[in-house]
Amino acid sequence: MADDRQTGKDDLDRRIADAKAEHARGGAQPVGGAESRGWAIGVEFVGAVLVSGFIGWLIDNHAGLGTKPWAMVVMLVLGFAAGTRRAMKTSAQFDASPDNDERNEK
């Protein structure tokens, strides 16, 4: 079998330029895309729980309503529900994404 590739510096420069152009057009898929999507969902969930828990803590300690510890408990439950709903919604968007097609994976 004969190798049709050219040898030398000019061929290497051309292949590097082609690869850079393909990357600039967005043709190259990022490695670890599924992992970064999973982290995004996890961060959204934890963020919702922490923010709502902090709001509940503020209500209990600084509003003077005498709700200690119930405002924080209620807000944590609401934050958990909101985080779960948001994670499910984001996960469904990722699953429906056209760039999630297995035929495009290399």
Description:
The structure is a single chain. 69% of the residues lie in helices and 0% in strands. It starts with 8 loop residues before the first helix and ends in a 10-residue tail after the last helix. The chain contains 3 helices and no strands. The radius of gyration is 25 Å and the shape is elongated. The longest helix is centred in the middle third of the chain and has 30 residues. α2 packs antiparallel against α3. It is mainly alpha-helical and 106 residues long. The protein has a domain of 60 residues.
Brief overview:
The chain is mainly α and 106 residues long. It has 3 helices and no strands.
Topology readout:
Elements lengths: L8 H16 L8 H30 L7 H27 L10
SSE ordering? HHH
What is the count of helical runs? Answer: 3
Report the β-strand fraction as a percent range. under 5%
Task: Assign an overall shape.
Answer: elongated
The largest β sheet comes out as: none
**Strand tally, please?**
0
| Computed Rg | 25 Å
What's the multimeric state?
Answer: single chain
Helix content: 55-70%
Q: End-to-end span in angstroms?
A: 26 Å
Mean pLDDT, to the nearest integer, reads 83
- Please state the structural category: mainly alpha
Low-confidence stretches are: none
